[in-house]
Amino acid sequence: MPLTALEQQLNFLREIDRLKTVTRQSPLLDQSRKENSAEHSWHLAMYALLLNEYACAAVNTNRVMQMLLLHDIVEIDVGDFPIHAGLSGELQAKQEAEAAVRLFGLLPPQQGNELLALWQEFERAESEDAKFAKALDRFQPLLINVFTGGGTWAENNVSLEQVVSRYGPVIKRGAPQLWAVCEQWVVRHFAGQTTKS
Amino acid sequence: MPLTALEQQLNFLREIDRLKTVTRQSPLLDQSRKENSAEHSWHLAMYALLLNEYACAAVNTNRVMQMLLLHDIVEIDVGDFPIHAGLSGELQAKQEAEAAVRLFGLLPPQQGNELLALWQEFERAESEDAKFAKALDRFQPLLINVFTGGGTWAENNVSLEQVVSRYGPVIKRGAPQLWAVCEQWVVRHFAGQTTKS
């Protein structure tokens, strides 16, 4: 007997519970442990809700929030690709695209196709909504690193120049005012000063 | 010097990082650990996005998602009040209301007031959006308990009648079709049969 729409939706919702077990490189701000990708996605949706006025252009905040809620679910299949690990972008993109097809394929076709299209739009980073979502996805771990005395930068011996080149273009493109703040934090951080507020 | 709007917003976003350290009673579906309130909120927003067709009335899905993303942040100050602990509802409501004022008060006034109003609307559970959000907030832990062989029910010796009375009215009111599924699960669960799909 084919599954009902509700059964397909509940299967998907149960499957994505696994995102709570995908560990990221970034710590929590209290440094008690590493962040997982589900709580990271929650936090990013809150960033989008609160910081939409700093987007590079008029954005649809609800679409941005939806993108950020689902942008990482491919990690259920392929894990988190750390920004400082120097892995192949092409291989990562291929594996993630396959994971998206499998995961959204659990849903009723129309709903699954809509969410797959939203995920692909985020990945392409061309629309205004996607550019802002990408900027926040880069801004949040930068903020964590600055407010935890280095975080993943200290662990990976990342230099000021590498921070500027790995985070700058994406944040600047989607949220230039946020990048202006980041520049101040980063310069202060690499000068050895702690950022408290 | 007064804080800029962006400084207030970033202070709030840093403060709510603490929701990741609030532990709930429910386990993850793989039972590796208890769920925290931040990842729970992420999951509920995904429930709202996917299951809006089962709402009791026409709802604004994006408002429901926003409510669910922020509904638990008061737990940063007061912790999670377990449904089966039999605590005073009045004391809980008072403490949570104070926490909401403090937390949303970190934001620029207009933004903070808007989010506080949304949180209060959720708590009142009178609007269609809030009724559906409340139903999902009750549905998700029920699903977890069913699919983990009992979860918090087993730990607290909760009976079939108690499940029906503690979950039923809220789920039925906001999402009657989801309650119909729950009834089947619950009856099967208390008859000692495992639910696999």
Concise summary:
Chain A is mainly alpha-helical. Helix content of chain A is 64%, strand content 4%. The longest helix of chain A is centred in the C-terminal third of the chain and has 20 residues, at 128-147.
Description:
The structure is a homodimer of 197-residue chains. With 197 residues, the first copy, chain A, is mostly helical. The first copy, chain A, has ten helices and two strands. Chain A has a two-stranded antiparallel ribbon. Chain A starts with a helix and ends in a 7-residue tail after the last helix. The mean pLDDT of chain A is 94. Chains A, B: InterPro entries: HD_domain, YfbR/HDDC2. Chains A, B: It comes from Vogesella oryzagri. Chains A, B: Pfam families: HD_3 (PF13023).
CATH homologous superfamily of chain A?
A: Hypothetical protein af1432
CATH topology of chain A: Hypothetical protein af1432
- What's the shape of chain A? globular
Q: Any idea of the CATH class of chain A?
A: Mainly Alpha
Which radius of gyration of chain A do the C-alpha atoms yield?
Answer: 17 Å
List the main descriptive attributes of the protein structure presented here.
64% helix; 197 residues; Hypothetical protein af1432; mainly alpha; two-stranded antiparallel ribbon; homodimer
Itemize the secondary structure elements and their pairings.
The structure is a homodimer of 197-residue chains.
Chain A: H1 5-15, E1 23-27, E2 34-36, H2 37-51, H3 61-70, H4 75-78, H5 89-104, H6 109-124, H7 128-147, H8 151-155, H9 160-174, H10 176-190
Antiparallel strand pairs in A: 1-2
Helix pairs in contact in A: 2-3, 2-7, 3-6, 3-7, 5-6, 6-7, 7-9, 7-10, 9-10
